Amino acid sequence: MTEEGTAPPRPDIELAPAPAAEGGEGESARHGELTFIGTATVLLRFGGFTVLTDPNFLHSGEKADIGLGLRVRRLTEPAMQVRNLPPLDLLVLSHFHGDHFDRTAERDLPRDLPIVTEPHAGRILRRKGFERVVPLETWERQRFTRGERSCSVESLPGRHSPRLLGPVVPPVMGSLLEFADRGRTTLRVYVTGDTLYDERLGEIPARHPEIDLCVIHLGGTRLAGVLLTMDDAQGVRTLELVKPRVAVPVHFDDYAIFRSPLEKFLRRARDTGLSTRVRELRRGETWAFEAGNEEAA
Ligand SMILES: [Zn+2]
Ligand SMILES: [Zn+2]
Questions:
Q1: Do strands 246-250 and 277-278 pair parallel, antiparallel, or not at all (unpaired)?
Q2: Residue 296 pLDDT class (50, 70, 90 cuts)
Q3: Would you say residue 189 lies in a domain?
Q4: Does 5 reside within a domain?
Q5: What spacing in Å lies between the alpha carbon of 292 and ligand 2's midpoint?
Q6: 127 CB burial (10 A radius; 0-12, 13-18, 19+)
Q7: Domain containing 128 — which CATH number?
Q8: Which of these ranges, 36-40, 215-219, 291-295, has the smallest mean pLDDT?
Q9: Whole-number Cα distances in Å, 132 to 18, 100, 176, 274
């Protein structure tokens, strides 16, 4: 164990009972639904928990602020707005970039929504008035409980830029969402965040050898020629390293700076004979699955 892994465990956060309409504990402990909203915004419903990732609700044509005074125009329309979402239990935010947390999210998300993120984004969100921010250092974990079930978020390593650019690109975290029912793990989901392939990602399968589902941020984002997110080759390499059972690609065509098309990744995944099954989701599409039987469509 590294120093980072020895932080004392954080106390559990007990969530209020889910509204009856959402199923709550009545919901099967193994049933899941994943909805791709756009960019890296994904709605995951599992075992009665509802989790949103990286909320980007800007409309097509609107500009996202990505720091250094740079603004990039969105090319796609998100499948939903905040008002269309079911009641959320928590938000997981990988980093503070305008294509992951935008002014619409800032305006419309409830201030008492628990937000799990890395410390840099956490400080910004607290300044913006979000009251229940949970900042995690790498390998730190926060568990949310509802009755006999739980959803834990663990911060995983990620690196958004070559080391030289470290100071101008925000830090990023990957996350492991681990669901459990009566102490037994039912599903493990790895959300990569905007990261490049990096040797440190190798620690993820070392600690978590059985990942069911990976939401992988691709796109081969380039700014001034510098690669900032995984392209097709790095994406396939990461999946070969982590070996999730299923991968769902996101973050690949919403902005012009996303330069590596999804087709290239899909072709490379096929040609490589990847053991991970790639499940392509269109914006607005929901994939329903049973944990332990992810082949179910
Ligand atoms: Zn980013
Ligand atoms: Zn991004």
A1: parallel
A2: very low
A3: yes
A4: no
A5: 30
A6: exposed
A7: 3.60.15.10
A8: 291-295
A9: 18, 18, 19, 40
> pLDDT band for position 162 (50/70/90)?
confident
The owner of tokens 């006999």 is 148
Mean pLDDT, residues 273-294: 92
Ligand 2 centre to CA of 110 (Å) is: 23
Domain span at residue 108? 25-279
AA identity, residue 35: T
Whether the Cβ atoms of residue 42 and residue 34 lie closer than 8 Å to each other:
yes
Question: 193: phi > 0 → left, psi -120 to 50 → alpha, else beta; which?
Answer: left
Q: Is 15 within a domain?
A: no
CA of 259 to the centre of ligand 2 (A): 12
The model carries a pTM of 0.95
Give the bridge partners for 31, in sequence order.
Answer: 290
Asked whether residue 290 is assigned to any structural domain, the reply reads no
* Residues 6+ away with beta carbon under 8 Å from 21: none
143 burial (CB, 10 Å; 0-12 / 13-18 / 19+) is middle
What is the Å distance from ligand 1's center to 89 Cα? Answer: 24
**Which residues, in sequence order, are CB contacts of 284 under 8 Å at separation 6+?**
35, 36, 37, 79, 80
* The Cα angle at residue 44 between residues 296 and 157, in degrees rounded to 5: 105
For residue range 240-261, list pLDDT tens digits in order: 999 999 999 999 999 999 999 9
Number of domains the chain is built from:
1
